[in-house]
Backbone:
């Protein structure tokens, strides 16, 4: 896997975005996919995805996300980066979510009252496959 040089693109009907190798912020403000408008900001310190002006996810430090697919009950994607990375999603408030990394259930986390769900992953240039499932 590699960074997304275009900052955001569609590949196999899924979103791919992020470039953790950039030294300076780069962004795309008006990427349209399936009638939704996406905004991506990315560089080595952060990668952030918004959909219709609402936060979807962000990683600190920056990362590259491929095969990003999000439904009401499940999110799946592969991610690579350079370090221990905090991944945060804006989901439904006060709900439980199972988090799998490379097909291993690492636990169930509850989103906070604002819908934020966060977890850490130790990243490298070898992609990690992440799946997040709503369980209640």
Residues:
């Amino acid at each position: 896997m590699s960074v997304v040089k275009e900052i955001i693109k569609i590949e196999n009907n899924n979103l791919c975005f992020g470039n953790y190798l950039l030294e300076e912020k780069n962004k795309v403000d008006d990427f349209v996919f399936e009638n939704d408008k996406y905004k991506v900001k990315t560089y080595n310190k952060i990668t952030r995805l918004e959909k219709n002006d609402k936060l979807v996810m962000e990683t600190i430090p920056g990362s590259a996300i491929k095969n990003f697919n999000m439904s009401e009950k499940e999110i799946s994607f592969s991610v690579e980066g350079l370090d221990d990375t905090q991944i945060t999603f804006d989901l439904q408030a006060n709900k439980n979510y199972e988090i799998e990394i490379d097909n291993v259930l690492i636990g169930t986390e509850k989103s906070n009252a604002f819908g934020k769900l966060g977890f850490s992953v130790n990243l490298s240039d070898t992609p990690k496959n992440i799946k997040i499932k709503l369980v209640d």
Summary: The two ends are 33 Å apart (CA to CA).
